[in-house]
Amino acid sequence: MKARSHAIVICPTYDDRLERFSMVPPATIKAGRCIGCSRLCYVNPSGALAIRQRDADVCCLRCERLYDADINHSLIES
Asked: What are phi and psi of 76, to 5 degrees?
């Protein structure tokens, strides 16, 4: 059984077009729902690989800015 790493990937939502398309390559892959607000987030291929390899949770930019340390703390306790 694989151990949970409690990793987190911060990524933009559909509405964060500047951030999504400023990434190289652009974030066009659906990554899943944000653990904070349940908005759909997007990643580029390297973000998708990070989610798969680390069994990571997804957090949107908005929640990361609002709850920064609290999100990481709650993942450690889960």
From this structure: -65, -35
**Residue whose structure tokens are 């709850």:** 67
Token couple for 67: 């709850």
Question: What is the rounded CA–CA span in Å between residue 31 and residue 7?
Answer: 14
pLDDT at 73: 56
The torsion angle over the Cα atoms of residues 71, 44, 42 and 34, rounded to 10 degrees, is -20
Q: Confidence band (pLDDT; 50, 70, 90) for 28? A: very high
Q: What is the pTM of this model?
A: 0.80
The β-bridge partners of 7 are none
One-character DSSP codes across the chain: -PPP---EEEE-BTT-HHHHHHSSS---EEEEE-TTT--EEEE-HHHHHHHHHHT-EEEEHHHHHHHHHHHHHHHHH-
Averaged pLDDT, 43-62:
92
